[in-house]
Design goal:
- By secondary structure, this protein is of the alpha/beta class.
- It contains 15 helices and 15 strands.
- Helix 7 packs across helix 12 and helix 8 runs antiparallel to helix 11.
- The chain is flat, with a radius of gyration of 70 Å.
């Protein structure tokens, strides 16, 4: 098998990469972390579908969740071109796979493609990776490890350790079975226990037969007694029906007797009430005359009471009107004392408008006076400045004499000294008079401004005071108008209290007569009702007498006998007691039978379980013997494999070592402990005796011999493709070039050898160089040279 091409998309460090592989020795060169080893991961993923490392780091870090991860590997196998395409899609990286041969699809699905690749190559993933790839520092380990560690390392590479794992699993199973047998034996019954339990089974079987026979006999007696009880119950229930019917007739008869007595009492009471009502007729005529006078008085009192209500209401309104008028007068008097004259009917809003106008007038006058004062003060300040300036100029000229500078042109005064002084004195006197005049005017304006301000404050306070009083005045006036309106609506009321008192007194005196009149009328209304009720009571009494005769007749026809009923009840109870006794006896017999059967079943089950346990122990004993034999056979199998592998590795290694050393060394020998010995000058010597370069070549030959041996064990053809990842380790320059030279010689045997290295010095030594670089857009690859 050799590689033709590799296509990557969003795989680890690679956003996108397309590699067409060459044949021969290929150096994959690049800095650490650039993505060299990732190419080997991609090859293994393409072939066997296993994701290397953590699944979450499989997708290129800058790719989105919807971007697919794809690896497409093309290889040549048995003169046929195969293309493996594996994709991982979505957030969960769901796997898809296809395999085609010469352009025709031959398998699809992750597991199906892997199975077909394994069949074509002749090796599973573990065998392939151990035989085709050599990892970092793996070559040096062969000679650096001690005897036992080296033997274990070679066993691991060859896959023999898997047999050890299987053996351990078999031994664990055998140990588990042994423990289970021991546990099962602890529960086995002894021979004496088995014999005793069998005797108990026979005894319990006899008891079950006897108990079952007795139970069947009792069951028949219970059935017979149940039938007898049923017959006696039928007789009793028939008598019970008669008794219930007889009781109902007796109850009806008693009820009719009570009703008859009640009806007679009601008829007697009715007659008495009718007589009493008829005797009230004479009294009623007298009461009727008094009732007419009562009604007349009632009408007069109603009129008096209405007049009285209006009279009281009018008096209250007059008192309220007087109070509101006094309140209004008090407010107007207070306003007058503050210099505000308002009549009772005059609107105060008019005075408020006048006050606001006056306040605005004073505010305007004050502003105008302030403006004049500010202008005057400005002018006064300017003149004072001129006055001071002239005084200072005069003082300076007087001090310096005729040599003083002119205050206007700044030239020396000389002859103009006297004229200038005279002029300054004239101006100083003029400014002094103007200042006095302006200061007098300023005082007058200040006084005028203060007057305007006082008037404005007084006017504002007056307006504020009137505004406060306005609400009280308007509300009081509104209340006065409302009271007057209500008095007008009532009008003049004519009410005579004395007449009202006398009428009320006479009305109260006639109240008792009125109440008696009402009572007599109510009694008279009862008479027609009582007469009708009397007729109905007579009819009911007659009907009651007829029903009593019918009930006596029905009771006689029923034919109920208390003595016969009592005898039927006693017979039924006797049959019930007999049936209950037999049922209880049957239940006790049944319980004894069930208990005996349960005990018998438990002993039989115990004996059956003991027999089954004995069979299980025998079966597990056989399994343990077979497992122990299998462990021994696998030990022999490992010994046989290692005994065959030893000479095979030695043969491959010797042949290759002789070739690479150009015949200087004839062979490499491997003893039983997998110590490596090189034949030199007629004797075998340990590998550590030789130089570093010879040692490296020996390690390389041993590693390639292991690869060929693994392929032989897997039944695969000799490998045409090899991969080495950082095999140079920490060797010096000379030893690295020695290994590289050996690999160049191996190109005739291996069509394709891939060497990963970060050593930039080796660039020029490889026939084919694939350089890997890491960029901002992911890792890239390109071939150097031709």
């Amino acid at each position: 098998m050799i590689l033709i091409s590799l296509s990557l998309q969003n795989f680890k460090q690679y956003k996108k990469a397309e590699i067409s592989f060459r044949e021969g020795l290929i150096g994959i060169i690049g800095k650490n972390g650039s993505g060299k080893s990732t190419l080997f991961d991609a090859i293994m993923l393409g072939l066997f579908g296993d994701i290397p490392g953590n699944k979450e780091y499989l997708r290129y870090q800058k790719a989105g969740e919807k971007d697919a991860v794809a690896v497409i590997l093309t290889l040549l196998l048995d003169s046929k071109e195969y293309e493996v395409k594996r994709e991982f899609r979505g957030k969960n990286l769901t796997a898809q796979a296809e395999l085609s041969c010469n352009g025709a699809q031959i398998a699809s699905g992750q597991k199906e493609v892997t199975a077909e690749i394994t069949r074509l190559i002749g090796m599973a993933k573990d065998s392939f990776s151990r035989s085709i790839f050599a990892g970092q520092k793996e070559l040096g380990l062969l000679s650096e490890l001690g005897g036992a560690d080296r033997k274990e390392f070679i066993r691991k590479i060859l896959g023999v350790t898997k047999i050890d794992e299987i053996q351990k699993s078999i031994r664990d199973d055998a140990r588990t079975i042994k423990n289970e047998i021991s546990g099962q034996k602890s529960f086995l019954l002894s021979d004496s226990d088995i014999s005793a339990k069998k005797e108990k089974v026979n005894s319990l079987s006899d008891s079950c037969y006897i108990l079952e026979t007795g139970a069947k006999a009792l069951e028949k007696k219970v059935a017979k007694s149940t039938l007898s009880l049923k017959n006696r119950k039928d007789i009793f229930f028939a008598e019970q029906i008669k008794k219930d019917a007889h009781s109902k007739l007796e109850n009806k008869q008693a009820s009719l007797a009570a009703q008859e007595e009640s009806l007679k009492n009601q008829i007697s009471s009715n007659k008495i009430k009718q007589a009493e009502i008829r005797s009230l007729e004479t009294e009623f005529i007298k009461l009727e005359e008094s009732e007419n006078i009562y009604k007349t008085l009632k009408n007069q009192i109603d009129v008096f009471e209405k007049q009285n209500v209006l009279y009281i209401k009018a008096e209250h309104l007059k008192e309220d009107l007087s109070g509101q008028t006094e309140a209004l007068h008090s407010i107007l008097t207070e306003l007058k004392s503050n210099g505000i004259l308002v009549s009772e009917a005059e609107p105060i809003e008019l005075l408020l408008e006048q006050g606001k106008a006056e306040q605005k007038k004073y505010e305007k006058a004050k502003k105008e006076a302030d403006a004049k004062l500010n202008a005057l003060r400005s002018k006064l300040g300017s003149i004072k400045n001129l006055f001071i300036e002239r005084q200072e100029s005069k003082q300076s000229i007087v001090k310096h004499g005729a040599d003083s500078d002119c205050p206007t042109c700044l030239r020396p005064l000389k002859d103009s000294y006297t004229v200038t002084l005279h002029k300054l004195d004239s101006e100083i006197e003029k400014y002094s008079k103007e200042i006095k005049s302006l200061e007098t005017a300023e005082k007058e304006l200040i006084k005028e401004t203060d007057t305007f301000e006082e008037n404005e404050i007084r006017s504002r306070k007056k307006n504020e005071y009137m505004n406060i009083q306005k609400t009280g005045i308007n509300q009081t006036r509104e209340k006065i108008n409302q009271v007057k309106t209500r008095l007008t609506a009532i009008g003049n009321i004519e009410f005579e209290p004395e007449k009202y008192r006398l009428a009320k007194k006479e009305f109260e005196e006639r109240q008792k007569t009125h109440d008696r009149f009402i009572s007599v009328i109510a009694r008279k209304k009862e008479l027609p009702i009582l007469e009708k009720e009397y007729t109905e009571l007579q009819s009911a009494l007659e009907k009651n007498t007829v029903q009593g005769i019918e009930i006596k007749k029905a009771a006689a026809e029923l034919g109920f006998s208390q003595n016969f009923f009592d005898k039927a009840s006693a017979d039924m109870q006797e049959a019930q007691n007999k049936k209950d006794d037999l049922t209880a006896e049957f239940s006790r017999s049944r319980e004894s039978l069930l208990s005996t059967q349960h005990e018998l079943s438990a002993i039989k089950k115990e004996l059956a379980e003991n027999e089954q346990r004995q069979k299980t122990i025998e079966k597990q004993g056989k399994e343990q013997i077979l497992l122990d034999k299998l462990v021994i056979l696998m030990d022999k199998f490992k010994t046989a494999i290692l005994s065959q592998i030893q000479p095979a590795i030695a043969h491959y290694a010797s042949s290759m070592f002789t070739r690479l050393t150009l015949g200087r060394y004839e062979s490499i020998h491997i003893d039983e402990d997998f110590n490596f010995l090189i034949f030199d000058e007629g004797n075998y010597f340990p590998i550590d005796r030789f130089s570093g370069g010879e040692k490296d070549l020996a390690n390389l030959c041993l590693r390639l011999a292991l690869s060929n041996t693994i392929c032989d064990l897997a039944g695969a053809a000799a490998p045409a493709f090899l991969g080495f990842d950082e095999i140079f380790g920490s060797q010096d320059r000379e030893r690295r070039y020695g290994i590289l030279s050996a690999l160049l010689l191996l190109q005739e045997q291996y069509r394709q050898i891939l060497i990963i290295s970060h050593d930039e010095e080796l660039k020029d030594e490889f026939p084919n160089i694939l350089e890997v670089r890491r960029t901002l857009d992911g890792s890239t690859t390109h071939w150097l040279g031709k």
